[in-house]
Write a structure and sequence with these properties.
two-stranded antiparallel ribbon; four-stranded mixed sheet; mainly beta; 6 strands
């Protein structure tokens, strides 16, 4: 199977903030890759790196390569 160009996956982002309760501060990120294979996620205080592969489908049999890099505006506490 030949590889095609690198694609950027669909990303959904949500934040919840509370000035009075730091435990209520959340960052939620959803990365959508159909039939995701070989996912790799690297999360640190300053950024998120994601890569994965996805099988092709009828009419487009090439394996799809997905990559994403998000640099955060402020540092986060990765968990």
């Amino acid at each position: 199977m030949a590889s095609s160009k690198i694609l950027t996956p669909e990303v959904l982002w949500a934040q919840r903030s509370s000035e009075s309760d730091p435990e209520e501060n959340y960052l939620l990120i959803t990365i959508a890759v159909p039939d995701c294979e070989e996912p790799s996620v690297k999360l640190d205080a300053k950024s998120l790196d994601f890569s994965a592969k996805s099988k092709g489908h009828v009419g487009d049999e090439h394996t799809h390569q997905y990559k994403l890099n998000i640099k955060f505006f402020k540092e986060i506490a990765p968990e």
